[in-house]
Amino acid sequence: MSSIEPYLPIIYDLALDCENITEIGVNRGNTTNIILKACEITQGRLTSIDKNDPLVFSTNSKKWLFIKSDCLEYYPDKNIDFLLIDCDPSIELTKKILSRYGKFVKKYIVIHDTIFYQLNEILIEWAVENGFWYLELDKKRYGLMILWSHLKA
User: Fold this and answer.
1) Mind listing the pLDDT tens digit for each residue in 79-93?
2) Strand 144-149 to 105-112 pairing
3) Whole-prediction pTM value?
4) 66: which strand partners?
5) Most buried of 47, 81, 104, 152 (most Cβ within 10 A)?
6) Measuring CA to CA, which residue among 69, 128, 122, 66 is closest to residue 93?
């Protein structure tokens, strides 16, 4: 079982509240698949960005755009409702992603592997500075943090 699997229902529920979703990191497509299921209901769309092709995931969904690129080289959509970061980010990469994408996020940012990569401190600092509330989940294993805007939504 993937470490993200226990959180797929939460990600699905957040995606149901969004039209424009950006995912950084695809890997096996666990989150991609669940977000696309929500997009089919909401008529939303998902843009996934990864340097590598998905390992086992493929779809013909017209709701999905896959961009094979470094996320820092891709020019982000200026209208992001939900940003999912699951790309094995270092502290420095996380700071760069938040700097590049965070200003365009209207509702939610979900970051996976926050404990594993020791990201909680910088995420909390960024959330407070940028008008987001935060919730830390899974503090014992890999970690997951949800940030949601209280200014832009």
Assistant:
1) 999 999 999 888 999
2) antiparallel
3) 0.93
4) 48
5) 81
6) 122
